[in-house]
Design brief:
With 259 residues, the chain is mostly beta strands. The chain has two domains: 147 residues; 95 residues, Sandwich (Immunoglobulin-like), CATH 2.60.40. It is built from one helix and 21 strands. It has a six-stranded antiparallel beta sheet with strand order 1-2-5-10-7-8, with no helix packed on it. It has a five-stranded antiparallel beta sheet with strand order 3-4-11-6-9, with no helix packed on it. The longest helix has 9 residues. It is elongated, with a radius of gyration of 22 Å. The two termini are 39 Å apart.
Length: 259
């Protein structure tokens, strides 16, 4: 049985799920806790999830809430790279709300404008010098209304590229100098992730509550796209006979597999 997308059977292009290749098109997801207007320290630095600022020292500004934000691109641009694995190839259409100008792979595209993408090849959508929100790239030649995905689904799509992984708390003895732990990611990521610390590793004495102990260095190995194995080193100065709790100050690490 074939399905015709003409509305006669209740199914139209506007309500076909998964048609938008842009992730976080209205800026709802902000796992990095990026603050609007914060200057970047390097080129192609990520801000709101999946959106990176092209030129070092420039920033993304935004207004709104987790229900939807209006972003403002700097003069050097804010962009998103669409993963080639999601591109079947052929004619696509770009649409958005706002005043910014847009390019796809360096070529100017107007609102509702069409362009051609190559199958299994990354594509870059960039906005410059103005506001943008409800960004949508979809197959075909006619722009449909913006696809509003549930927050949890949008978050999971973002986590394929960047996520916060929870570090387990581990009880150790005073003779311990290293702690090994395996950390699972929330979803399977696009590729083996780059792991960075968010805060200092500390020890808390679980005999005397909230007793701060020494910080530790980190060794990361066996990094995959589903988990990472980490070793916290150089715990020193522990009191004999006591028991300690190894923990992260905010319990998270950054894991990134961005394009």
């Amino acid at each position: 049985m074939s399905i015709v997308l003409d509305g006669t059977n209740g199914i139209t292009a506007a309500n076909v799920y998964g048609r938008n290749l842009i992730i976080n098109g209205s800026g709802r997801i902000n796992q990095r806790a990026y603050t609007s207007g914060t200057a970047t320290s390097g080129a192609n630095e990520y801000t709101l999830d999946r959106w990176r600022v092209v030129t070092s020292g420039q920033s993304l500004t935004f207004t709104g809430t987790d229900a939807g934000r209006v972003m403002t691109a700097p003069a050097g641009g804010a962009e998103q790279v669409i993963e080639g694995a999601n591109i079947a190839g052929g004619t696509y259409v770009l649409n958005w709300t706002g005043t910014a100008t847009a390019t796809v792979d360096g070529n100017a595209v107007a609102k509702g404008g069409t362009f051609t993408l190559t199958a299994n090849t990354n594509a870059t959508v960039r906005f410059t010098s103005g506001t943008f929100s409800e960004v949508q790239v979809e197959a075909g030649s006619v722009a449909t209304p913006f696809e509003h995905r549930p927050y949890g689904q949008e978050l999971a799509l973002c986590q394929r590229y960047f996520a916060l992984a929870v570090v387990a708390r581990t009880v150790i003895a005073s003779t311990t100098t290293t702690v090994d732990t395996a950390i699972a990611y929330p979803v399977q990521m696009r590729a083996s992730a780059t792991v960075t610390a968010r805060s200092v590793i500390t020890l808390t004495n679980v005999v005397s509550a909230n007793y701060a102990q020494s910080s530790a260095s980190i060794t990361v190995f066996d990094v995959g796209n589903s988990s990472v194995y980490m070793r916290f080193n150089n715990f020193t100065g522990l009191t004999a006979g006591n028991v300690y709790l190894a923990r992260y100050d905010d319990m998270f690490i950054n894991v990134s597999a961005e394009l």
